[in-house]
Amino acid sequence: MVTKKIVVLISGNGSNLQALIDKLHKQQVNNHNIEIIAVISNKTDAYGLQRATEANIPAILIESKGISSREEYDRLLTAELDKLQPDLILLAGFMRILTPDFVNQYSGKMLNIHPSLLPKYQGVNTYQRAIDAGEKEHGATVHFVTPELDSGPTVLQAKVPIFEEDNAQELAERVLTQEHQIYALAASWFIDGRLVMQDNYALLDGKQLGEFGYAPD
Ligand code: NHR
Ligand code: GAR
Question: What is the pLDDT of residues 9-29, one digit of tens each?
C-alpha cells in the first residue's frame, strides 16, 4: 500500500491541524495510507506545535521573526520541504504570505482554508468585516494556493448564518466548526487522486468545479 505524505503549515492554535490529525492521520483512503509527516510553524508559541508533538508528529519551527525578506524565509521552507518530499501541503491558519516562486514550486499540491466565502473577504479579519457589512451569511473556503493571495481555484465551501447579535468571536467559532469538516474532506479527495488542479481550475473526478467549488445541487 502506498503512503501519501502530508505536511501542515501553521501559525497558531492549530484546531484545523487537530481535525486533520483526528480524521486523516494514519487513516486509509482506498488503497492509500495517509501520514502527516511534519508540522511546520513560523511562530514559536503556536499551540499547534504541541498538538503535533502529542500526536508523535515531528514539530518543526522555522521562525519568520527576524527574517528580513519573504524570499529568504521561503528558501528556508523549501529546504525543509525538499527533505520531506510531501505529496500534499496544507496551510492551516498559516499567516504568512508566500512568494510566487515558492507557490509555483508546489503548484497543484498546496491547499489553504480561508475563513470567508471567497471571492468575498480576502485577507485577514474577515468576521468583523462581514458583520459590519450587514452580511446574512459567512463561511469558509478550501482552495488551491496560487501566487495571487486567496485567489486560487475553489474546491469546497461551507456556509454559516450570521445572527443579529453576533460578535466576531462567536462567528469565528461557528465558521471554525465547519472548517474542520470541509478541510479534511477536501484533503481526502486530493489524497484519493480525485481532486486535481488543471489550467487554474479545480477538477473533481475529472469535472471542472465552478466558482464556488463543489456544490451538490
Ligand atoms: N500565499 C500565496 N501566495 N497565495 C495564497 O493564496 C496564500 C498565501 C499565503 C497564505 C493564507 C491566507 C488566508 O487564508 C495564505 C494564502 C496571510 C495573509 C497576510 O496578510 C493573508 C492571507 C493569508 C494568510 N499575512 C501578513 C503577511 O504580511 C501577516 C498578517 C498577520 O501576521 O496577522 O504575511 O487568509
Ligand atoms: C482558521 O479560521 C483559518 O481559516 C484561518 O485562521 C484560523 C486558524 O485556526 N486562516 C487564516 O486566516 C489564514 N490567513 P486554527 O489555527 O485553529 O486552525
Answer: 999 999 999 999 999 999 998
